[in-house]
Structures are given as structure tokens and as C-alpha cells.
Design a protein that fits this description.
It is built from two helices and 35 strands. With 422 residues, the protein is mainly beta. It starts with a helix and ends in a 7-residue tail after the last helix.
């Protein structure tokens, strides 16, 4: 009997231990602010640990290559690679790989601005210079919030929505970097549409007017394009509003030979223009109207991403010949996934949300479900949970079997019979 009681206690202890380990793993996960740091000799970098309230201790695997202070300041000493390890009293650890590089070290990074304000939809190129000139000129640009400002490898920034983002520019040495604060203001203009105005230009006698210049102008600016060999022209990215439509003989002429007034809405526009002296007669060609558009089609209605990944959503109208107005997306939870004016979805944090894409008139809409995973390593978390559940069931099952046998023997000892005697 004592052996059976000891066995049951051990099983229960194992189950409790497993629960304790799982709970500890989920609650506390020690990490450092950097997984890899690149430095040149005599450069320093600040590391810190997160994920615990315990006191932490830093140490270097090879102090000849890199030393680390008690508060996490790493100093490169010699060429090579080593690891900086941080540890808690309870035994949790995290590590950072330090690469000490050879060559001329960047000493200074100069940005053309470190504080800029943009409007939604505007773009700007952040220029950076590394000194001395003989040092590596490699630079990396990253945005703290891709839903607010997106930046490419050359420093080209696109303001996507109102908010604040920090663009970090890093050299080949992590010790030499600069930040630029980008404030994005909401576009106060009511015209958020960018459409295409296509047309043809003829004389009153029906002659195609080639190599003429057609211009759309209003208080916000102008766009001038040349007609092709068929008298056709196309003006891209025209916003909603009223425009003067002007025709010039030369690219740099300031006096138009014909002019008219047109209105641009939220749909792409096709027009025929007839030059009758100084008067320009504009005929609006028949298009498929909004009433003929039956459905808005998305390239995907379910998108799975990992944190930091992006997906470019495309859309079109049904029937295929219908003219589709500008489409905008709205995320139900922008902390999980955001969408910009171009339809690019950016995964921000783990979770599920939906993004609704709608035409500006609000008549057509479609919804896409977005699932964001924390990282590649978590795609197997379901399998791990299943394995742990099976192990738990095995432990509990073993405990119940042992307990039942124990009770049967106890009854037999006390009453002198078992179930088979009945």
C-alpha cells in the first residue's frame, strides 16, 4: 500500500511540475533588445534584457573579443565573434551575438533632417551621409510603424496615414545610427480620389491633332501631356474637382490655343475634345457607370501573415468591362494589421482582424480576414500544445488506473471480496 501511495504522489507531482513548467514558460521569456550586434574595435553598444522582474547578470563568453559591463554596455576589443549572455537568478538566459568587424569604422552619420512633417499620401527621400568617406557606406532604413510611414532601402518614405513614426538609419556598425521623427498629418482635402483622364483631340474637320499638349489645371497645380500619333492622351492621378482643360502647340508654351472646363469625379474619365478655334468642345464618352458594376472582387479573402510581413491586395470589378472607382481599405483592428491607400496590408501583432475594402461611394465592399502569427517559430505551437495535452492525459490516466487498483485492493483487504465475487 505504501508503494502505491508513493506512486500516486509521484504522478501528481509530475503533473503539477509539468503545469508549472508550461506556466513559467508562458509567463516569463527573457530576451535582449538585439540578437546580433556589429561593432568595430573600441566601439560600445548598450544591451538590455526584458521579460523578467528579476535581477540580471551579463557576461561575455570571450572577453578578449568583447567585454560587457554589469549594466549591459558591450565594448569591442578585438576582431572575431563572441556571445554576450544575460542570466537571471532563476536560471533563465538570453544571448546576443557580437561581431567585431575589420576595416574603417563609421564615425558619424549625418541626416539631411531628423524631424519632418508630411501629409497623408506624400513622399520624401531621407538622405544620409557616413563619415569618414573611406568607411563602409552600407545603410539600413527601418520604420517603427509601417502602417504610418513605409521606407525602402534607399530612404524613400511614403506617408500612409496620420500618426508618428521613427525612421532609424543604421550603418555597418550598430553603434553609429540616427533617427528621424516623421509626423504625418491627415489630408484635409475632401478629394481623396486619384483617377485617370483619357481622351482624344481632333480638329473641327475630324483631323487627329498629334504632337499637341493637353493640360489640366486648377488651384492645386497642373499636369501637361502630349498627344500621340492617334491624337490620344492620358493624364494620370487626377483628383476630384473642376479643371481648366487647355491645349498648347508646344511643351513650354504659355498661351493656350483652345480651352474648356471639365469636372472630374471618382470614376476614370474618357472624353473626346474637338478644337473649334479658341473654343474646345468636350464630349464625354459613354462608360460603364456605377449602376452597371455588380461586384467588387478581391484577389484574396483570407490572408495569413507573420508579424512584420506585408501583402499587396488587388481588386477589380465585375463585369470585367466596368469602371472601378478608387477603393480604400479599413482595418477593424489596426494594432493587428493595417492597410494603406495602395492596398498593402502590414502585419503588426499576433491576432485576427478583418479589413473591409470599399469604393468611395460606399456602394461596393468586400471583407478580407487577416490572421497574424507572432513568428515563424509559433506555427508549430498547436502541435506542441497537442503533445503536451496527450502527455497530461497519459499521466492522469495512469493516476486513475493506479488509484482504482489501490481502491480494489483496499476493499479486498477490508471486506474480503472483490467485484468478481459478486
Amino acid at each position: 500500500m505504501k508503494k502505491q501511495l508513493i506512486c500516486m504522489v509521484l504522478i501528481l507531482a509530475a503533473v503539477c511540475c509539468m503545469f508549472g513548467i508550461c506556466a513559467h514558460a508562458e509567463e516569463d521569456r527573457l530576451t535582449m533588445n538585439m540578437e546580433t550586434v556589429n561593432l568595430y574595435i573600441n566601439q560600445s553598444y548598450q544591451l538590455w534584457a526584458t521579460g523578467t522582474t528579476e535581477e540580471v547578470l551579463f557576461h561575455s563568453e570571450n572577453t578578449k573579443i568583447a567585454e560587457v559591463s554589469g549594466d549591459g554596455v558591450v565594448t569591442a576589443k578585438a576582431l572575431g565573434t563572441t556571445k554576450i549572455i544575460v542570466q537571471t537568478d532563476s536560471g533563465m538566459t538570453a544571448e546576443c551575438t557580437v561581431n567585431v568587424l575589420n576595416g574603417v569604422s563609421p564615425k558619424e552619420l549625418i541626416l539631411n533632417t531628423q524631424d519632418i512633417t508630411l501629409k497623408e499620401g506624400e513622399s520624401y527621400t531621407l538622405k544620409a551621409e557616413i563619415k569618414p568617406a573611406e568607411a563602409s557606406q552600407t545603410m539600413t532604413f527601418t520604420s517603427s510603424d509601417n502602417a504610418v510611414v513605409r521606407v525602402d532601402k534607399n530612404g524613400y518614405m511614403k506617408a500612409l496615414k496620420a500618426g508618428v513614426a521613427v525612421i532609424t538609419v543604421t550603418t555597418s556598425s550598430d553603434a553609429v545610427s540616427k533617427k528621424c521623427i516623421v509626423k504625418v498629418n491627415a489630408d484635409t482635402e475632401t478629394e481623396q480620389t486619384a483617377v485617370t483622364v483619357k481622351g482624344s483631340l481632333y480638329s473641327i474637320t475630324g483631323e487627329k491633332k498629334t504632337q499637341m499638349f493637353v493640360e489640366l489645371r486648377n488651384s492645386s497645380g497642373f499636369k501637361r501631356v502630349e498627344t500621340d500619333e492617334n491624337g490620344m492622351f492620358s493624364v494620370q492621378k487626377v483628383r476630384q474637382g473642376d479643371y481648366a482643360l487647355l491645349v498648347y502647340k508646344g511643351e513650354k508654351d504659355v498661351n493656350p490655343v483652345s480651352k474648356a472646363q471639365i469636372s472630374v469625379g471618382i470614376y476614370h474619365l474618357n472624353i473626346s475634345c474637338i478644337m473649334n478655334g479658341s473654343e474646345l468642345v468636350v464630349l464625354y464618352q459613354k462608360n460603364n457607370t456605377d449602376s452597371e458594376i455588380k461586384e467588387l472582387i478581391l484577389t484574396s479573402k483570407e490572408v495569413s501573415l507573420h508579424k512584420g510581413e506585408t501583402y499587396d491586395m488587388n481588386y477589380y470589378a465585375r463585369p470585367s468591362g466596368a469602371v472601378l472607382p478608387t477603393v480604400m481599405g479599413v482595418s477593424q483592428d489596426e494594432t493587428i494589421a493595417a492597410v494603406d491607400a495602395d492596398g498593402r496590408i502590414t502585419a503588426l501583432s499576433e491576432g485576427k482582424t478583418s479589413i473591409t475594402f470599399s469604393t468611395l461611394d460606399g456602394r461596393l465592399s468586400q471583407t478580407c480576414q487577416v490572421v497574424v502569427s507572432d513568428s515563424d517559430g509559433n506555427r508549430y505551437s498547436g502541435v506542441i500544445i497537442a503533445v503536451e495535452s496527450i502527455l497530461l492525459l497519459v499521466f492522469v490516466g495512469g493516476f486513475l488506473i493506479r488509484y482504482r487498483k489501490f481502491m480494489k485492493r483496499r476493499e479486498k483487504e477490508e471486506f474480503g471480496f472483490d467485484e468478481g465475487d459478486e
